[in-house]
Amino acid sequence: MALNWIPREGGVKDHNIWGMEHFGTTPPCTMYEEKPILDPTGKPVEGLYSAWITLNNPAQYNSYTTEMVKGVIAGFHRAQEQRNVVAVVFTGAGNNAFCTGGNTKEYSEYYSQKPTEYSQYMTLFNGMVDAILMCQKPVIRRINGMSVAGGQEIGGACDIAVAADTAIFGQAGPRHGSAPVGGSSDFLPWALTIEDAMWNCVSCEMWSAYKMVRKNYLSKVFPVLKQGDKFVRNPSVITEKWLDNGEIVYGESVTGEAAKAAREIMKGCTYDYSLVDAEVNRILWTFTNLFPHCLMKSIAGVRQKKKYFWDLNKNDHLFWLGVNMDSEAFLGFTAFNTKKITGKDTIDFIKYRELIAQGHMINDELFEAVLGKPLPPQK
């Protein structure tokens, strides 16, 4: 017997917390767009979509402002509440960067020496990482360029990565006044060996996409540079041999004259992300042809390992990060933000260590001693 005598509400409820107020199209902003799922022939599937969340600040290498952080949180929430969205694609605008972390101009000019303000900002940042890890849809990171500092950290929260071979990865905190505690110190040891994770977190070296393949951090890397109608691999990275006098060089960046020549080659190339996007579409099609609840249970089971370590530390970190804005973060972000004035993007580390060894107070006198001096006016 049909249970049509039981009262039922009609329609569906809207579970979104926000509208579209945190999204935009004019940089700096976070963009949100739903694109049709494509079948293997390239034909759109009626009524099914992927949600594209794009960090749109290419002039500043897609560094995220406070409002952009809100946009990412809102974007992942909206995507998970859309019943017709299969998965999320997280990417950056332009050819140069997926994301290079927090906006250092905003850090330097607003948040520095404001510990409480920065702690509140870091609460938003934690919410951004949580929004990725808790999203009830699979998350594909489309890495179109630099994935550095906070960009590597929020990227590490994603489920699957598809990278352009021009992408680079690394942290900047210890060189510019912070620490990689926005995810990398939790996620990298899960993906890399403990020593590789340690070195990547503290050295501030930039590692190529090919090196990350060798380190088993990435599995899907595609060329995006074209000479005419032919794809060419990134000329700034050694991609054709594994050993040189016993040392592994595959994936290492070229140096000296070779680096100069590589830059000239790249200037003559165009960018084409069709191979990257074909792989993104292939993954989306795979997800589309799986039971959605079984898929998310499987993804959550793997995510939980990353989330466990993230949850252990995230709330304590924001207090240290706030207090640090009175000292090393102030110095690091100020130096980076004034590099056009001083010609240097870092402090004088030797002088700083000397003064600290002498028991010097962290005060304006120390700041003046280690920050670069304005360059003389050009004639």
List low-confidence stretches: none
CATH topology of the largest domain: 2-enoyl-CoA Hydratase, Chain A, domain 1
CATH superfamily of the largest domain: 2-enoyl-CoA Hydratase, Chain A, domain 1
> How many DSSP E strands?
15
Structural class: alpha/beta
What level of helicity do the residues show? 40-55%
Strand content: 15-25%
What is the string of SSEs from the N terminus onward? EEHEEHHEEHEEHHHEHEEEEEHEHHHHHH
Ends distance: 92 Å
Q: Largest sheet, described in full?
A: 6 strands, mixed
Work out the helix count: 15
What CATH architecture of the largest domain would you give?
Alpha-Beta Complex
Overall pLDDT: 95
Nearest-angstrom radius of gyration? 23 Å
CATH class of the largest domain: Alpha Beta
* Count of discrete domains: 2
**Tell me, what's the shape?**
globular
Strand order of the largest sheet: 1-2-3-5-7-10
